[in-house]
Amino acid sequence: MLTKFRQSIGLTTAISGVFAMLIITGVMIAYQITPFGRQNLLFSDNAAQYVTFLTALRHALVTHQFSLYSFGLSLGSNAVPTLAYYLMSPFNLGLVFFPAAQVPSAITLMIILKVACISAAMAYFLQRHFEIVSGWAVLFGAAFGLCGFVAADYFDIMWLDSLICLPLIINGLDTIVRGGKPTRFFVWLLFGVIVNYYLGYMICIFIVCYTVYIIYEDGHGQLSFSQLLNQNKDHLLTIVFSGLFSLMSAMVILVPTIIGMMQTAKHAYVSANFTFRSMFSFPVLAQLGIGGVSYGNHLIHAPAIFSSLIVTLLVGCYFVHPNISKSSKWHAAIFLLGLLLSMKVCITNTIWHLFQQPSGFPFRQAFFFSFMMITISYGAWLKNAKLVSRHWKVALPAIIMGCLILGTFGPHFLMMSSASNRLSSTQLGILTLNISVIVLGSLIIFTTGRLLQSCLMIGLFAGELSGNFLIAMTGSPFGNQIQYQQRYQREAAILKPITKDSGQLYRTNNQSRLINNSFQRYYNYNDALLFNYRGISEYNSTINDTTRRTLNSLGLFSKNVRRISAQGLNPVTEMLLGVKYNVSPSNRLAQNTSYVGMGFPTSKSLTTIQLHPTDKFTNLEKILVSINKGEAPYFYPVRKTRVQLVRNKSKQTNYRYHLQMTVNTTGPLYLNARLRGTNYTTITVNGKHIASPKVPANRFRFLDRLGSYTKGTKLSVALTSASPYPEALQFESMNQWKFKKLVASLQFPGYVPKIQGNQISGDIIANRHQRSAFLSIPFDKGWQIKVNGQPTAPGKVLNGLMAVPIKSGLNYIVLIYHTPGLIIGSIFSILGLVSFICLSMVLKLKEPLKHRKRS
Hints:
28 helices, alpha+beta
């Protein structure tokens, strides 16, 4: 009998996965997404981050070159936080079957497979939870696989694995409460935390909430809280210890990740995130229906709680069903309301999101609400929704229609004075569609016979779920897969001389924009990962903030705490950062004349320099002077002869500057706008426009090159800025001859190391005045350094880089990276696994005692 049950539940589980797969595949075909067409999903974070990370992972899998420290992450960084947040999905192993240029096709197929697995997992849970095998679980499972959260954030593919784990974790929890073994709960919680610790943390919060709910449900509203605790104390202790041991077992990933994340800006405390302000209002009601989210509002929207209008209608039936107890209705209502309020109130929403408000893609816990909606609605369906009283069969659809109308019109009633807030024809069309679905769904549920009802329900579920997904993808700036494949291969060929494994450590400034035409918006932040070279730029939620601030202080552009760009690179920073090659915008590869290696010997004066966040010329001057004081100064301010400031009539916050100046030395001229607000696209020199930044850098700070001029040249510079303070605009030229002389003095003794895995080694020659070796490697406590075989403690220089003490003569420097927290995390993981095995043995020994007590 048990075997037959397992076979039946396995069949319906598989059918649910196939049903959802057919729907999502149909949507991808409709939009001609690769491998079913010429477009790909390279937009938003999928283009800026995921395709680059996955391509880098594919290279590591194919070449077997794994390292927990990556020089593809800006100047170099602990790679564990990036791996843990983005790349732990087992689905990623399938990348080995695709060429690098076809990773976008792999992404599409992974999304399809993940959606199918989410649906299958939910169908499995529903049948286990209600202890009945039913073909209806196919449809309700698919409702979770294609719920609002998935439709809104499907391209954030690393989150989808957590939705697969959630039903399986809760099934394991149900098993414990019913007196079963904790193995499923332990294994799936461990898996859920490992594949994505961020949503894994949210799942842990939900487990606490669900445990309270299910304990109260088992009490049937007849026991007090203390009686419930006493009755279920063994189950609760099993859940607590199994969960604790599961989290301990994941510490091999979590401990290094936590240590690495402490180096980002995400640990900063923002008091505004811990208030009781409301996070949304009426628009959340519109999210119950089709079309609540599209690409136009994917960064800012109310919680994506869509689970299908059929599910919403059945949830209503649950609360008025005559065969469902009042206590169950109260428990379900409190749980749903609690989940909704925890998203609405800022402080609880912040707690859900690991104590940080998300930047875009809001309410990332919304899928828990969908999970409970579907579970409750399935319970109502199994009780036969036709049994609700006649007046509720009319009232429930009317209430849902009212909610949809209020969710659509509510915000516009509040802002009637603004013409821009009028409802569009698309919004009215979606509202009409949703009302039609409610009417049709009500008729199907309450009036049709079993056979007709089955056929119509399948069609309505398929129509709702596919329709919502189609609308969610509306307006998405899809990439061109054919162009991507061709241009990727061309750029990879150009970069081949530097990407082939020579074993030498250096960096490359790649300004090629070949790949960009394959996207609608792409700014090359993670090209180093995409093409497997060592660069400078990075766009990553786990970026090292000290490195980012250091580079920004040296003149490089940083839009926010997740991005650093090579825009603003100059000869001094190229020398400091070990940039050996430049790839020009015209795709020409050339060796950089200011390259001196990945470090050089210097006096201890360099170690005392503290970089100023905005005074970039002073920072660079101090660095050059510390290397060779005799040739100072290196940077010369221009002589301004006239400054005219005119307020822009069309935009009162903008000012137009006209400056007359004389260059005081021969070499490149730079602008440092110390106050934000400069529009770099408006800069003209002697009436000619200067090349615009390759990334959108307007109103931010970085060193902008205005050309190269000889001493005494008179210039007329015009620009627009939001800042009315002319003294904040600094113009300085670098003496080209002095700088070349300094570079020549450093090139012979420079540090030109070899790299293999996590080890860097090379020689450096110093004179008796040079007691330190500057290394163009971010300071990190994970580095263990030996100089001439003797362990040496590195020092932090220039706010975030490294220097080591050396002696005169030849010095052999070896750096080996040991991931901080990896050993202690491994010990905790072993302890967690052993502890759970012991717990399982103890529970097994207790089973005979339980049976005797029951007897």
